[in-house]
């Protein structure tokens, strides 16, 4: 019985070791600049917004050395922008006059990217780059509205935005070994949305893309 218990313990440790070699888990905090980019006349961006992303990072190694992996995770992303709509465009309650909308949006985001990583050098540094896509789902969407005759804050527009956003994700950065079990990471991440963020039937604004440029700060365990 003791021998059987020892064998089970050894197998469990072996399986755990194999898992940690194949999967790197960590947490990230990403200060960012978020912009909404209208693609039609009559709608103009009047301001970007400082945003923030945070959540879980997960790298699934494709080879034993970890030079190739699928980078994914689960993130909460806070962003938005300011857009000015000409009269006749925008939400029906406010389109009688030119109106500025200050968008405040929260998305749940799942990235999927191919990540290439160098071997660590003598100083414990490794460099990485990634290319892929992401899937983002709005869980909160509000606007502050201002025109010559009206002003309103925190109007819920969740039903007036599209329920998914997909786009291009590219990034590059550096990992640095902090200890035997901790690795810090820093990089730059650019995201370019492909899908219209606002529902055209509600806004009559053509296509509005959400883009962001973020500083990746994180730690792997």
From TrEMBL:
- Identify the residues that the record assigns to the Outer membrane protein beta-barrel domain, covering every copy: 12-184
Q: Which Pfam families match?
A: OMP_b-brl_2
Q: Which domain of life is it from?
A: Bacteria
The name on file for this protein is: Outer membrane protein with beta-barrel domain
């Amino acid at each position: 019985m003791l021998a059987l218990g020892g064998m089970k313990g050894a197998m469990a440790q072996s399986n755990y070791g194999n898992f940690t070699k194949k999967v790197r888990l960590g947490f990230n905090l990403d200060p960012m600049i978020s912009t909404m980019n209208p693609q039609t006349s009559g709608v103009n961006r009047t301001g970007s917004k400082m945003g923030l992303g945070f959540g879980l990072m997960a790298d699934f190694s494709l080879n034993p050395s970890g030079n190739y992996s699928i980078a994914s995770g689960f993130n909460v992303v806070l962003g938005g922008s300011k857009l000015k709509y000409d009269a006749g465009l925008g939400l029906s309650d406010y389109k009688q006059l030119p109106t500025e909308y200050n968008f405040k949006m929260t998305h749940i985001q799942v990235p999927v990217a191919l990540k290439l990583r160098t071997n660590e050098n003598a100083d414990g540094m490794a460099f990485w780059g990634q290319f892929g896509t992401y899937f983002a789902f709005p869980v909160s969407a509000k606007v502050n509205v201002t025109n010559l005759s009206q002003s309103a804050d925190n109007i819920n527009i969740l039903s007036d935005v599209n329920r998914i956003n997909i786009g291009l994700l590219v990034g590059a950065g550096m990992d640095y070994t902090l200890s035997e079990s901790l690795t810090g990471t820093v990089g730059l991440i650019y995201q370019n949305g492909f899908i219209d963020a606002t529902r055209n039937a509600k806004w009559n604004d053509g296509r509005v893309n959400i883009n962001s440029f973020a500083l990746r700060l994180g730690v792997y365990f």
